[in-house]
Amino acid sequence: MPDIESFSPRGMFHEGWTAEVNDYAIVCGWAIKGKLFIVGDVSGGIFAFEGDTGKIIWEKEKTHSGGLLAMSIHPEGEIFATSGQDGNIQIYNCHEGKLIKTLDLGKAWVEHLKWSNDGLFLAVASSKKVYIFNEIGDEKWVSDDHPSTVSAIKWSNKNELATACYGRVTFFDIENNKTNQKLEWKGSLVSMELSPDGDIVACGSQDNSVHFWRRSTGMDAEMTGYPGKPSHLSFDESGKLLATSGSERITVWSFIGDGPEGTIPGELFHHTEPISSLAFSNKGMLVASGSRDGSVVASFLKKDGNGDPVGAAFAGDLVGAISWRPDDCALAAVNAKGVVNVWKFKVRTNLSSEGFK
Amino acid sequence: MRIKDKVPVTILTGFLGSGKTTLLNRILSEEHGKRIAVIENEYGEVGIDQGLVINADEEVFEMSNGCICCTVRGDLIRVLGNLMKRRDKFDYVLVETTGLADPGPVAQTFFIDEEISSEFTLDGIVTLVDAAHIDQQLGRSDESSEQVAFADVLVLNKTDLVSGDALDSLESRLRDMNRMTRIIRAENAKVPIETVLNLSAFDLDQILKRRPTFLEPEYPFEWTGVYDLDAGKYELMLEEGPDPEMSVVALANQGESEEELKDGAESSVRLYAEKSKSLEPGNTIPFGEHIILKLEEKGDKSFILDIEKGSKIGLYTQHTAEEFNMKIIKIDKNNPKEIPFKIERFWQAEHEHDDEVTSIAIERFGDVDPEKLNTWLGRLLSEKGVDIFRTKGFISYSGNPQRIVFQGVHMLFTAQPDKEWGNEPRRNQLVFIGRNLDEKEMREGFEKCLI
To answer: Nearest by CB to B70, which of A111, A207, A337?
Structure first.
């Protein structure tokens, strides 16, 4: 991607396909190397579409009684896991939607789950505990109670899991059952992202700030002045830019040089209502944002965090989730009315008219 | 889809054993056409088979700035954040808290969190109290008095276990603590649904429409007597009593029913707030005015009542008739005759409060200077916000044709223009509910904001 920066790329959303699911769509993701697109709705429907055409491949109803809360697609894209209000975790095969395993954690909601980057483990947060399962669903490790309900989880490397809750971020070595690090901050942490190398920890806090730590140096900083709680965070693949949002504005912090402490962040004003989803492309400095007003915008960012929109579309209603296809040549948005929109995304550069390959 | 009604949320508080679960089940089982989502605390036991019941541990989250007013309930943010995605499944939310919950963070959650406040609106706080045990509980824990202080509706439950006298004195104690609340007596949590749901208690405009003065009155007079008088002249005779003067309002055409007496009391409260006129013995008492009878002279004193056309009149007096042995005597040289009252009524007079938690109501006619008021209120709330649980009121800004209504929870505060004053006399009414409030200082502070 470095070659592209000297150009001002003009991208756009081209017509792709649309489809519908049965209820408010809250999660989505690409599987089988972009050949399959999976959408989950709030009432527990799961739908798999052919990635190129939107043809329905399979669908499931009422997978979690009470409703679906989260989904994580295995990095190899052959299986995925879902969790819900019923306290269950279900692991499915992507190709046919066959249920492989159900894990029951009890009464409490299971709000977060994430496959580790190498796909060997599945981390799950339910109430004040996190659980680790292996690929076939055997429990490998479980944490003690956190001080509050766990609000976010993220793998920092293949054996280390980060959790956020009220007042702290904790790093667990799940292989050796020990706590590697605790970062304390008196505040309610509502979101968490890690830089790809696992060094920078960024958390959105209920008091309308973003707090971050550098694990290697122990330095921490608080970025205040957000109009709302920053529920949405996304790092670019290089770990240099952190896009954050708690309102209709997107604030981008640049970690290049001495930043972001003491620097002025880039700001993007593209939406009329607060951001409801935010995602960097898999490669490069493109950030896609979806808003409560139904707009979806892709912005091309510069090193300082400022940038320009390179494409926009209307998803019809509050954007529940967005997802870049693994090759970044398509962007998907699912909305509160259950509508799925997939646009082909192209950026014209001197190098390629087919996106960022 | 953006323009839509927010979902109302009722908070149900009360100590363990006060009957919350009974009330909750009663609400859920009744035919009210509402689809109610229930957020229960971890000990909750909804017995009704109900579509949306969510259990949540109460998680109180303070902010890094240490501000008590920014403290929220994290569990509610999480659960409501999910519920808002299922808006087609319900149209009302009930939140049941444990007896140990501080209602402050619960209420603040609906003001502070943008995501929540964009979809939900706090409809009201309903506190259940166990009539048999609340007296002890109030002494023992801060939570129970805070739950009383925050309540828009207080359900005085289990009244069948307590004597009528004890209930009256309990009600008066609770009333002292929270003068904005509506008190409903109940056995076995049996209350009409409409008294606890759809209160719009945080929508002052609505409240003021229903109750032009949202205070439950405490009266500046102790006694009313209704006299049936024919045309002619009468003497109002008073002997020496406990006070060298006494305020009186005399109303013509006073009915004898409780409703008519309350109407009369309401008008008299307003007249009492107006400037008074002093009368020396021998003067004639005007109707519909706030007058002060001067009673310094020794011996009996009499004032004149001049009745043009026979009617019933009501006397609303600061002290009881008995204290001055007050009598009405028809002036007739040949046959002076005492006219006894047809009916008398005693009122709950303003008095000293024992509880730490009290209400302070300030009512004044006239306009205030917006800047002075902002400065005063801003300072008051920043210094005493921790101890001021709720604030409500309306204000007359000089030069502004609209009434300004405002309300607050701790330091959080909103003020907005409401209906136009029109011909109505411009006045101000503020109510503060809080702990250890300095009434004198607050009254003086407000006084200085008046023009």
So the answer is: A207
